[in-house]
């Protein structure tokens, strides 16, 4: 376990003298392993994004050292990732007019916009934005991405010509053209996929993608199978070049960039926090935004495309005992060496083998277990996950994300507007007041103690009044006193203040004495400034429910 708990980048650890000599070996081993995973993935994910493999190498070679310097996760596997690649590609392809050079510039522009948005958000300390995407939204989104990835690889994996962009239509075309399956492509891709999946299960720390590609290359070389190969890869060293696009393109790409930034950051922070909590250190959410922004901004001007992180490349170093982001520096250096001396070998990789890498990634991110768990706990949240998944598949990734965020906010608003409420009663041998739904509790005749477990605001002030009247109707006896327990009311706005004042006036007009109990200082101060407490009387404001009940009993002479 890492010996310190503070969030820190690799330079922070070195500067503070916290990097231990014993960490070199596991960091070096993990870096070499990540490089072996990264080489086939950067090529595959670049192709997935509609770019040549060289763009994937340029992106990774810039992202790895930038994150190691700024980021606070010691294990996050930074670089190209299928979700952000395909999300960016969906926006860029509409504006490219089929021009590969313009398409590459648009993809780099999206990366630059992601960088600007993330850097600005980090400076404004907006790390909490990741909380806008709930668990059901993330499960639905990532499953939709996984299914989209699967359909996107039907052509290179099987050789069947497919023209459609929509995943549902792609599947339809594939089914009607099964007679055009290329046996050689399917055999090579299927073999690579089988190797990757088997190694993932029995040897998860091995570079399964690289081994699978190596075996597929050997099969093609030995059998002479006629399959498509990657072909020549240009020297992919990063070079400074600002994307050649207009301000109109920037405006049109901004919504897609915002979606990529939100998804990429959320993916990063959730993966990073998951690992950090197990290993024993903290993640700085705002620094993670800065790191995401810096690496995408750097990738934009060096011929790359939007990047975030890969869960598989994050968890494997953890299992190997790595301690710091030296892993990224070792991985980057290894990829660079491999690229400089091994481009000829990479050129012979079968495209069906690259498709197998993407299909394996799709299998890994389709979260059926997440769907099952959510469905067991909440049908409404399971429906939200399903709608998100269908929106991602049926419309497009960005719209799916926007639909999901909108539905999440609506559900959150509904839950805030209609929270749990209860009548409180006493129970023998229990200290305090409990919900009368508990069989041990007894409501008090002639006295209603009502609790509302949520903020009072414009969307539920009238609902609050209705629930109080309903509680009076179901409570036994003829109430002469009503105690409004305000402990669960964390905040109140001006609309609800007026509605609460009207409710109190109505209850008093009906001959009932109203008291407020356990209101927090902020709520009570607002009620005083609004004149509600003055109309009610300071002697009707109580620090506890027991104090309010004693006052009721004194009035009733009991």
Explain briefly what this protein structure is.
It is built from 23 helices and 8 strands. By secondary structure, it is mainly alpha-helical.
Describe the structure.
The protein has 558 residues and is mainly alpha-helical. The chain folds into two domains: 10-412, no CATH class; 421-556, Transcription Regulator spoIIAA, CATH 3.30.750.24. 63% of the residues lie in helices and 6% in strands. It has helices at residues 10-15, 24-48, 53-70, 82-96, 100-123, 135-152, 154-158, 167-176, 183-202, 208-223, 247-279, 285-300, 311-319, 326-346, 351-365, 368-377, 379-394, 397-417, 461-474, 494-509, 521-529, 532-536, 545-556, and strands spanning 77-79, 308-310, 421-425, 434-435, 447-452, 481-485, 513-517, 541-542. The strands form two sheets. The protein has a six-stranded mixed β-sheet with strand order 4-3-5-6-7-8. Strands 1-2 form a two-stranded antiparallel ribbon. The mean pLDDT is 86.
Q: Give the domain tally.
A: 2
Helices, by number, come to 23
Name the shape in a single word. Answer: elongated
Strand order of the largest sheet: 4-3-5-6-7-8
Instruction: Report Rg.
Output: 30 Å
CA(first)-CA(last) distance: 63 Å
The percentage helix is 55-70%
Comma- or semicolon-separated keywords:
single chain; 558 residues; mainly alpha; Transcription Regulator spoIIAA; 6-stranded mixed β-sheet; two-stranded antiparallel sheet; 23 helices; 8 strands
């Amino acid at each position: 376990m890492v010996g310190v708990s503070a969030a820190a980048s690799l330079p922070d650890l070195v500067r503070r003298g916290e990097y231990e000599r014993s960490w070199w070996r596991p960091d070096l081993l993990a870096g070499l392993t990540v490089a072996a995973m990264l080489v086939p993935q950067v090529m595959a994910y670049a192709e997935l994004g509609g770019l040549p493999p060289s763009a994937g190498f340029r992106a990774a070679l810039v992202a790895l050292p930038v994150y190691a310097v700024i980021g606070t996760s010691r294990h996050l596997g930074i670089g190209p990732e299928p979700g952000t690649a395909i999300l960016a590609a969906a926006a860029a392809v509409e504006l490219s007019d089929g021009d590969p050079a313009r398409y590459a510039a648009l993809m780099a522009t999206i990366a630059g916009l992601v960088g600007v948005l993330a850097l600005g958000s980090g400076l404004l300390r907006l790390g909490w934005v990741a909380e806008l995407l709930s668990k059901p939204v993330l499960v639905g989104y990532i499953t939709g991405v996984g299914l989209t990835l699967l359909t996107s690889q039907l052509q290179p994996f099987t050789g069947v010509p497919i023209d459609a962009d929509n995943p549902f239509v792609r599947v339809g075309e594939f089914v009607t053209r099964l007679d055009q399956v290329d046996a050689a492509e399917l055999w090579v891709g299927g073999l690579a996929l089988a190797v990757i999946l088997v190694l993932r299960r029995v040897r998860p720390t091995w570079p399964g993608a690289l081994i699978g590609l190596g075996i597929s290359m050997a099969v093609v070389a030995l059998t002479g199978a006629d399959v498509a190969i990657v072909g020549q890869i240009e020297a992919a060293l990063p070079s400074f070049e600002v994307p050649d696009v207009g301000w109109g393109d920037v405006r049109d790409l901004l919504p897609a960039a915002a979606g990529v930034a939100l998804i990429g950051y959320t993916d990063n922070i959730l993966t990073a926090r998951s690992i950090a909590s197990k290993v024993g250190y903290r993640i700085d959410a705002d620094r993670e935004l800065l790191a995401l922004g810096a690496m995408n901004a750097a990738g934009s001007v060096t011929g790359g495309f939007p990047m975030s992180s890969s869960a598989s490349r994050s968890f494997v170093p953890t299992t190997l005992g790595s301690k710091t982001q030296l892993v990224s520096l070792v991985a980057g250096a290894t990829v660079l060496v491999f690229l400089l001396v091994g481009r000829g070998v990479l050129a012979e990789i079968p495209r069906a083998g690259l498709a197998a890498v993407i299909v394996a990634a799709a299998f890994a991110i389709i979260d059926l277990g997440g769907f099952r768990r959510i469905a067991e706990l909440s049908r409404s949240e399971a429906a939200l996950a399903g709608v998100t998944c269908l929106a991602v598949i049926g419309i497009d990734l960005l719209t799916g994300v926007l639909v999901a965020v909108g539905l999440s906010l609506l559900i959150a608003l509904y839950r805030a507007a209609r929270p749990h409420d209860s009548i409180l009663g006493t129970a023998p041998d229990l200290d305090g007041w409990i919900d009368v739904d508990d069989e041990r509790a007894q409501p008090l005749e002639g006295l209603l103690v009502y609790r509302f477990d949520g903020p009072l605001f414009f969307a539920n002030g009238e609902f609050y009044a209705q629930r109080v009247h309903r509680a009076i109707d179901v409570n036994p006896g003829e109430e002469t006193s009503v105690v409004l327990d305000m402990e669960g009311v964390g905040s109140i706005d001006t609309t609800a203040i007026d509605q609460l004042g009207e409710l109190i006036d109505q209850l008093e007009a009906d001959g009932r004495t109203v008291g407020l109990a356990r209101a927090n200082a902020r709520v009570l101060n607002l009620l005083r400034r609004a004149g509600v407490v003055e109309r009610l009387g300071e002697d009707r404001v109580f620090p506890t429910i027991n104090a309010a009940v004693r006052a009721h009993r004194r009035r009733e002479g009991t």
